[in-house]
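Chapter review: from sequence to fold.
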Amino acid sequence: MKKILFAASFFLLFQAKAQIDPVKYPTFTSIEEALGSSNTVYSMSFREKGLFNLPPQISELKSLFFLNIMGNKLEKMDPEIFALKELTILNVNENSIKFIPDEIRELTRLETFSMNLNGLTGINPHMAELQRLKAVHLEANNLNVFPEALMEIPSLEEINLQGNQISFITNRIEKIRNLKFLNLSENQINDMGNLSFPKNLKYLELQQNAISKLPENLYRAKNLEFLNASGNQITQISSGVKGLKNITSMNLAHNNLKDLPQEITQLKKLKTLILTGNPIEKSKIEVLKKQMPETRIYF
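The token string follows.
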């Protein structure tokens, strides 16, 4: 099983939204208790129950909006899931599911979909019909291209594709206009061409790929606040870096940088710059520290 490294805790947008009020919406862990409840059942968890199939009676819980079935032995998404038309949060992490069926399009109210650590090699194109989706987590699967269906969902704000085998990303990613968080770390990306990014992007993770050059259009991402491009093969940073007016944290550790452009000193909001593991002369770092007294520089 692949080991997943989750993003830093300061990006909590959808973690906060996914919190379930335990008083107002108690989470049931037994189907018998749920069906026997005198109150409406909104939240259900079968986490780590060793299930090969979901109990078919779950389809009777018509008001269910939260379902957690992570850590089981499911090899497919049971049809009972698609009878739950009110589902807004669905977690099927850590199973052995290799495909998403066409019926996924029936979950039209879905906002958060998490399917980490399964065996996906592709994404069903019918996912594009889920126009309320805001967060998609597909870490540690076997995807080799950026899922085309996701580019048809402009409402998406968070996409996590860490730990796949993605080597190519089409410029259509710019169409996801509300995207704020994108994690493409631990893939097989080596050439990003001149990829354009959504203008609302704030958080970008590219670490542990084989990238030799950051795309020039990245430096036009004026709302970007966090960039992690560590563990790549980057040899230079363009003078266009001055365009990252709102960047507060930049991690360029363990690349092949021998120098940085003078324009980096124009990043007045930059609080953290990580350069460890690069072949930059120490004297250049000392000069940079004097020029950027408000920035913590790690070397």
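Two observations follow directly from the output. DSSP finds three helices and 13 strands in the chain. The helical segments are 13-17, 31-36, 282-291.
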